[in-house]
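Ops channel
N.P.: pipeline sanity check, posting one input/output pair.
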């Protein structure tokens, strides 16, 4: 089991957001369906935690990019906006 867990953890870092999200949905479905042993349930739970971290990482990165894009022109002396155009006044 240690080898499988290590391999899964290593592979988690290369997952894209959609892949991690889809696998997380499947893990949750399997946990909710029941019928697994305690050991299987724990392994699914751990995998779900890893996948949730991957999703969170992607979402935090997306949020940072959005914040930078929204703040960028004002902070970098970019193009004037309609309310900030020096030609109007």
């Amino acid at each position: 089991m240690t080898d499988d867990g290590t391999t899964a953890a290593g592979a988690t870092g290369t997952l894209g957001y959609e892949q991690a999200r889809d696998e997380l949905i499947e893990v949750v479905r399997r946990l909710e369906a029941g019928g697994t042993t305690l050991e299987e349930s724990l392994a699914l739970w751990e995998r779900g935690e890893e996948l949730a971290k991957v999703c969170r990482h992607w979402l935090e990165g997306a949020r940072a990019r959005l914040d930078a894009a929204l703040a960028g022109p004002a902070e970098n002396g970019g193009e004037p906006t309609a309310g900030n155009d020096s030609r109007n006044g």
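N.P.: looks fine end to end. Confidence is low (pLDDT under 50) at residues 1-9, 85-89.
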